[in-house]
Please model this.
Amino acid sequence: MTDEALSAGAVARRLGVAVTTLRTWHQRYGLGPSEHVPGHHRRYTPADLIRLETMRRLTANGVAPAEAARWAVQAPNAALPGPGPRTERRGTRDGGGATIPVGRSGPAARGLARAAMRLDSNAINEVIDHAISTDGVVVTWDTLLRPVLAGIGERHAATAALIEVEHLVSRCVSEAFAAVVRAHAPHGPPRILLSCADEEQHSLPLEAFGAALAEAGIAHRLLGARVPVRALLEAVNRTGPAAVVLWSQTRSTADPTQLTALLAGPNRPLLVFAAGPGWRADSLPAGVVRPVNLAEALSLAAAVRDSLDQSAAG
Amino acid sequence: MTDEALSAGAVARRLGVAVTTLRTWHQRYGLGPSEHVPGHHRRYTPADLIRLETMRRLTANGVAPAEAARWAVQAPNAALPGPGPRTERRGTRDGGGATIPVGRSGPAARGLARAAMRLDSNAINEVIDHAISTDGVVVTWDTLLRPVLAGIGERHAATAALIEVEHLVSRCVSEAFAAVVRAHAPHGPPRILLSCADEEQHSLPLEAFGAALAEAGIAHRLLGARVPVRALLEAVNRTGPAAVVLWSQTRSTADPTQLTALLAGPNRPLLVFAAGPGWRADSLPAGVVRPVNLAEALSLAAAVRDSLDQSAAG
DNA sequence: TACGAGTTGCGTCGATTCATGCGTCGAATT
DNA sequence: AATTCGACGCATGAATCGACGCAACTCGTA
Model:
């Protein structure tokens, strides 16, 4: 029968790597077809595929390729090491290739970057979900997602490439946050409104905040990107939130008028957050807080929730 | 009833291939007359003819013969080109009056519209999730989500209001689809690439398609909105998908050049879908399929799924 | 902080291997 | 007598091979 003897190209497509990479893996690490006559085409058996799949999974989790290959050859079906971060860093150096600069952000970030380059949404989801369930939303955002996204953005701003990578990763992150929100039952009505500033396109940080809130048991309402001032005021007026978070990524979208309008409305929220690097500290109207990072925003939001509970109880 | 038991020569003439090729196809791929005694002449029944016709059509479209043969044996009637059956077109007249015009789309749509007006994401999620788990993605999209979204869009185009409602509902829908994708384990590598056309902002229909694919057990890769041609080609080149779906919502984003570029690339996909109302049927290059609705696109994609790529199997 | 060494993914090039359509030949079928 | 059968072989284009090199990232060191 046609016992799945895949050619190099087929395997490469299946794994999401280039054909030349398969050859390199074979030559450098001995990770190739079990039987191969030099000069002839490579024929990968199912067993070989399992080995390569292990290789892929390990590298997607940040294990250095050389080490991952050694592992894949010896124990083809090795599950991910539970402890994880305890990678013996002796002598082995990590390299690059066509990757995404993540600097010293840990092996998980490197793995995520690698999976992203391959457009491997499964691996991306795996890494993100694992990180969130292990370290929580805030830590994952600060140490894994933001560095990788920043790296992609940096690269893509410079070379106008990687746009598709950025889209894919953004969407995976968005989905992961959505899953967090859905997983945590929101008890109580949402009293916190999250919205992007007018014209602001980046809603991912807001979604991170939303997920963090959900994780902390705080219900919220997320409007999304590009919310015109009128729509925002309309929403505030209709839902009467206790706090409003307005995100601005770049200076051009950080019009303080929006904040003023929020405070001047008929249904004035108790607290207004000017979040994001776009806002300038000196031009903010009084009564607006400016959290510097996710953790601070979260603790502020928790304070709002508590004060509401108190006032409701009293 | 010897219904047209054609001889090898007759079939060969009809298909435009040599007689020996028919023999080769039989020996190499098992694609021959259903009943054949070795040594005797081959007698092709009409059913065999259909199979051969599929084989010819696929190979004519650039499918690797071995793959095409496997495909032809399994799914003899895989529709490839040509206009699909006529669409049921019915002028829906919306009653208007209330908040969001949903027409006669059932009570669920009305409930969804009402929850949307309240910006009540919990209720929105509830309605959507229930509909999807009851009726499936395709029906939910066609009878619930699309009408409501269209209603919101219509209203907001007229009055410049409801923008926040549209955002919220869009995001909820997006999350629901993402949840569907995550719930269904994708077995096998994603061989179908979904992408918006250049400049195209609406990705929700694509996400619906992705969810429908996942529901049917077909893995896919979704790039998202606003994918420049270069990025799309890059992705195709790197991942080598069997099929590419390019969505265009409005005519202004439906540049046929993108399709041509896809077909001309070095790693030409097996099938290209021009999806969405933006495309004009008469300006599509040859070899491009234009599904008229979600259901048709889904059945086409299902045909692609069966082609496990082992094109170089010995 | 800057620089060099070590890693790694992948593009490129000329040569080789493979898959595939089809022609040819002697024997068998119709 | 006209085809067709099975087997074999050939020409050709696509895929792959091995070798080499490049670019880019990380990390230790000056």
Notes: Confidence is low (pLDDT under 50) at residues 82-90 of chain A. DSSP finds eleven helices and five strands in chain A. Residues 7-9, 19, 23, 27, 38-42, 93-104, 110 of chain A lie near DNA strand D (CB under 10 Å from a C1'). The longest helix of chain A spans residues 121-159.
